[in-house]
Write a structure and sequence with these properties.
Layout (H helix, E strand, L loop, with lengths): L18 H11 L5 E4 L5 E6 L25 E2 L2 H10 L19 E5 L3 H7 L34 E13 L2 E5 L13 E9 L8 E9 L1 H4 L5 E7 L8 E2 L7 E2 L6 E5 L3 E6 L11 E11 L26 E9 L4 E3 L5 E4 L6 E6 L2 E5 L9
Parallel strand pairs: 3-16
Antiparallel strand pairs: 1-2, 2-4, 5-14, 5-17, 6-15, 7-8, 7-14, 8-9, 9-10, 11-13, 12-13, 15-16, 15-19, 18-19
């Protein structure tokens, strides 16, 4: 397959997690490195031997044979798909900020080091790396239409997405432009991402693989835009996490693994089929677009922006977009969608516009005169 109380007398300390629990968890997450690189943005990158990365500690991967690259590549299924791909051109080499201070040696993988402060910001070892779900005591706004996201429906989460469903999908590719949206509240976030999903959120067995860019101050401790990955096998309840924050994502016949490629088709790693239930065979829906978390601070809609912060109608150079969208069919062919559907819960806050079959614009400013 191709492919984050004030007590009557005294105030409770802001960070009250036992150091021993944090230290134990850090020893689990941060594997011994053969080289360490300090990024200009403050991140610490550990170069971990590839066979010692945390994903391989997953109990379902005890006998897993590590794969260094996909065994097959999807082909372009139609002449029109080939023409569209040719017009895309090739992107330049992808560089990350920490590359300014060095590169990891061969046979290692680059992993952002988790710190005690990262865990304390979240508030518990158990919640670290998980998604935030529901704002405390959300105040309903009127009128409040039912969210129509095909992947999930969780209080506080708002979407502007395009999607395909009711079929079998074996991967997708797309081009996303990158922005740095304003995020208002410390617990809120803004993302642009791809979802591959199977199973049901309502039944608690939703499987997802999620990839894109994100601004998430609570998780990262800053307002920078970062590439992220996420997965779950049980509708965000107990399994899955962002990036390398738990067992699962392995960094670098048709295999059943879900591969992540970036830039010039460089394989970054994969999610082994063994860690999923429904996604062990195929996805039944794909979703592309934006998501924000709205805590309705002071009873008003958040000012957290989606995408560039502009509505979809701003178009090229001003709005966030997905373009060059393809999906992989059962014949392992990349084909472009002909029936993209769209979903947006609050069109006065965020919007989506589809100008052609395999691209769309999305985003918005959040609270404004028409989105109180």
């Amino acid at each position: 397959m191709a492919f984050q109380t004030v007590a009557p007398i005294a105030t409770k300390p802001r960070h009250s997690l036992p150091f021993s629990r944090i230290d134990d968890h850090l020893r689990t997450l941060n594997k011994p490195a053969v080289k360490t690189i300090h990024s200009p943005d403050g991140d610490i990158i550990d170069c971990v031997p590839i066979h010692q990365q945390i994903a391989l500690d997953h109990p379902k991967l005890r006998n897993h044979k590590l794969q260094m690259h996909p065994q097959t590549q999807p082909s372009y299924g139609t002449a029109e798909s080939v023409n569209r791909f040719t017009k895309m051109g090739r992107s330049n080499e992808i560089r990350q900020l920490w590359h300014e201070n060095g590169r990891c040696p061969s046979a290692t993988v680059a992993v952002r080091r988790i710190t005690a402060e990262d865990i304390r910001r979240v508030g518990s070892v158990e919640r670290f790396g998980r998604k935030f779900h529901q704002p405390p005591k959300p105040k309903p706004r009127s009128p409040k239409p039912k969210p129509r996201s095909r992947i999930v429906s969780r209080p506080g989460h708002e979407y502007a997405t395009a999607y395909l469903d009711n079929n079998e999908y074996y991967g997708t590719r797309a081009t996303i432009n990158v922005w740095n949206p304003h995020v208002q509240g410390p617990l809120e976030f803004s993302v642009a991402q791809i979802w591959l999903a199977a199973g049901s959120f309502d039944n608690g067995d939703l499987n997802t693989i999620e990839v894109g860019w994100m601004v998430h101050p609570k998780y990262y401790g800053d307002n920078n835009t970062r590439l992220f990955t996420f997965w779950t096998d049980d509708a965000y309840q107990f399994t899955g996490c962002y990036n390398h924050d738990c067992l699962g994502f392995v960094q670098d016949s048709v295999t059943r693994n879900w591969w992540l490629k970036f830039g010039n088709d460089a394989p970054m790693g994969y999610w082994p089929a063994e860690i999923f239930s429904h996604l062990s065979t195929a996805a039944t829906s794909i979703q592309w677009g934006g998501e924000i978390l709205n805590f309705e601070i002071s009873g008003q809609h958040t000012q957290t922006q989606m995408g560039s912060g502009n509505f979809a109608q701003a178009g090229s150079s001003h709005a966030s977009y997905f373009k060059n969208i393809f999906y992989v069919n059962a014949a392992n062919q990349l084909v472009f969608p002909t029936n993209l559907q769209t979903s947006v819960a609050f069109p006065n806050c965020y919007s989506i516009q589809v100008p052609n079959a395999n691209s769309f614009y999305f985003g918005g400013p959040g609270r404004n005169s028409n989105c109180p």
